[in-house]
Each structure stands twice: as structure tokens, then as C-alpha cells.
Automatic annotation (TrEMBL):
Bilayer-crossing regions: none
Enzyme Commission code: 2.7.1.24
A Gene Ontology cellular-component term: cytoplasm
Catalytic activity: 3'-dephospho-CoA + ATP = ADP + CoA + H(+)
Any one Gene Ontology molecular-function term assigned to this protein's record: ATP binding
Gene (UniProt): coaE
Keyword entries, A-Z: ATP-binding, Coenzyme A biosynthesis, Cytoplasm, Kinase, Nucleotide-binding, Transferase
Record pathway: Cofactor biosynthesis; coenzyme A biosynthesis; CoA from (R)-pantothenate: step 5/5
Protein name: Dephospho-CoA kinase
Organism of this sequence: Enterococcus termitis
């Protein structure tokens, strides 16, 4: 049974960079974002729940989810965002835990990439939690550049998650991602060599 490392961060903190570093070492990744897309594909109970709650205007003409429309709705309304998370949480949790179980049989270390790890209470299902950290001001700057957002839009998205400082305080491991990718790579490699091999 391999060790299960929950990997989280905030939007635009560089979590995918760290996930890629673990991937290059050959460790299996459980990707919550991929699973989140799968649980709302055409014909899934997850998509049916969204339509039932928010109406068929959340669908595109081919019957698939209109992510842009749903995103605009939930990022501007906290109650609707909470409702959406409640609807999809059981489907997500079942799929994530099933994939962790399967991959744990195959490797010394399984990385569980969950943006909303603390918000969803997933810390109880992993052995340790690593947070990819940058200060909030840098997070806002990177997000505005990356997604071409105004400061207000970027702030809405950052504020929809638990503050990065709180995540950093709760984590077992912090990968500081303020400098170069090379610096981040060194800290990931060091952690792997000290804990896994």
C-alpha cells in the first residue's frame, strides 16, 4: 500500500507545475479536476442534478454542460456555489476514493491533486497534505495575467477558496512556488528522496 499525498494550493499558485514534477518521477496522479468533469458528462447523474437545480439553460445545444454559464453564476453567488458543491460532492467523493484505492495498490506514492482539498474535507482520506504556496498578492497577479481577468474577477475566484495562508498553516508540507520552477523542482526532489526512496 503506497503513501497517499494530498496536493492542494490556491488558484494560480502553480499546483499543476508541482503535479507535473511528481508525474515525471512516475508516480500515479488522482486528478480531482478531471474527475469533476467526468461526473457531469452527458448522461451522468451529476449533470441531471445540475439541470434539476439550475435549469436546462445550463446546457449547450448538444446537451453538454455550459461551463462558462455555470461558472459565471456560481462565482457571483455564494449560495449557488455552495449548493452546486453539495449536489456534486457525493459523486466526486465516490470516484476520487475509488481511484485512490486502485492506484495505492500500484505504487509507493500516490498524488491526489485536489484544489479544494480542505474545503471538501479530503484531508481525512490522505496520509499527508502538501500545499503549493505563493502569497495572495502574487496569486492575484498571476491569475489576472493567466486568465485575462480584472482584479475584481480574480479576487472573486481567490475568495471562493479557503485563504492560501490558512492552507499553508494546516499543511504537513509546503512547496514554496514564489521563485523559479527550478527552485520548486529542487524542493520536490528533496522531499521525494527523503520520504519515498
Amino acid at each position: 500500500m503506497g503513501m497517499v499525498l494530498g496536493l492542494t494550493g490556491g488558484i494560480a499558485t502553480g499546483k499543476s507545475t508541482v503535479v507535473d514534477l511528481f508525474k515525471k518521477h512516475g508516480f500515479p496522479i488522482v486528478d480531482a479536476d478531471v474527475i469533476a468533469r467526468e461526473v457531469v458528462e452527458i448522461g451522468t447523474p451529476g449533470l441531471a442534478e445540475i439541470v434539476s437545480e439550475f435549469g436546462s439553460e445550463m446546457l449547450l445545444s448538444d446537451g453538454s454542460l455550459n461551463r462558462k454559464k455555470l461558472g459565471a453564476l456560481i462565482f457571483s453567488d455564494d449560495e449557488k456555489r455552495v449548493k452546486l458543491n453539495q449536489l456534486l460532492s457525493p459523486f466526486l467523493r465516490a470516484a476520487i476514493l475509488s481511484e485512490i484505492d486502485e492506484k495505492q495498490q500500484q505504487a509507493k506514492l500516490v498524488i491526489v491533486d485536489i484544489p479544494l482539498l480542505y474545503e471538501g474535507g479530503y484531508e481525512t482520506f490522505v496520509d499527508q497534505v502538501a500545499v503549493v504556496y505563493i502569497p495572495e498578492e502574487l496569486q492575484l497577479d498571476r491569475l489576472m495575467k493567466r486568465d485575462n481577468l480584472t482584479r475584481t474577477e480574480a479576487k472573486q475566484r481567490v475568495d471562493s477558496q479557503l485563504p492560501i495562508e490558512q492552507k499553508r498553516q494546516r499543511a504537513n508540507i509546503v512547496f514554496d512556488n514564489q521563485k523559479t520552477v527550478e527552485e520548486t523542482k529542487k524542493s520536490v526532489d528533496k522531499w521525494i528522496s527523503e520520504n519515498i526512496f
